[in-house]
Amino acid sequence: MTRVHDNHPWRQTPPPPFFEETLQEGNVVEDKAHGQLVITYQGPCPCCLGQTVSKTPLTVIPSDDQGIRGQSAGQPFTVTMQCACVTVHPDTPAGMSGCGHEWEVTVR
Ligand SMILES: [Zn+2]
Ligand SMILES: [Zn+2]
After folding, report:
1. Residue 73's pLDDT is what?
2. Residue numbers of the chain with a pLDDT score lower than 50
3. What distance in angstroms lies between residue 5's CA and the mean position of ligand 1's atoms?
4. pLDDT the model gives residue 72
5. Which of 104, 8, 95 has its CA nearest to residue 54?
6. What are phi and psi of 23, to 5 degrees?
7. What is the greatest pairwise CA distance in the chain?
8. How far is the CA of 47 from the centre of ligand 2 (A)?
9. 86 alpha carbon to ligand 2 midpoint, in Å?
10. What are the structural domain ranges in the chain?
11. Which ligand is nearest to the CA of 101?
């Protein structure tokens, strides 16, 4: 399957079809420091197929550093990621990056 970066307008509606299978190529990394858990997704954006390194910080409950707000310790949970590919998509607002689309990754 040949894949090229899809340079659609930023946050195009409706969004182009997502390539769910590309998420399996990405890496999901947890980094816990300073009372925050930062989930990083590194891999192809399922929407535009651009390579992205997207970070989403979560708040860790201070009394239980295994726990994440609203989640049970040790259980898989989903985190919303936003595309941060290096291509400037048409109509990208100032200060924003990527294709403007979001997807969910599962952290295990
Ligand atoms: Zn994208
Ligand atoms: Zn892109």
Report:
1. 61
2. none
3. 8
4. 55
5. 104
6. -60, -30
7. 48
8. 8
9. 7
10. 20-107
11. 1
CA of 62 to the centre of ligand 1 (A): 34
Amino acid sitting at position 17 = P
d(CA 64, CA 48): 37
Q: Is 75 exposed, middle or buried (0-12, 13-18, 19+ CB in 10 A)?
A: exposed
**pLDDT for res 34:** 75
> Ion ligand 1 — residues with CB under 5 Å?
45, 47-48, 83, 85, 98-99
Cα–Cα–Cα angle for 75, 65, 42, rounded to 5 degrees: 60
Q: CA–CA distance from 73 to each of 33, 49, 70, 79 (Å)?
A: 17, 32, 10, 15
Give the distance (Å) from ligand 1 centre to CA of residue 46.
Answer: 7
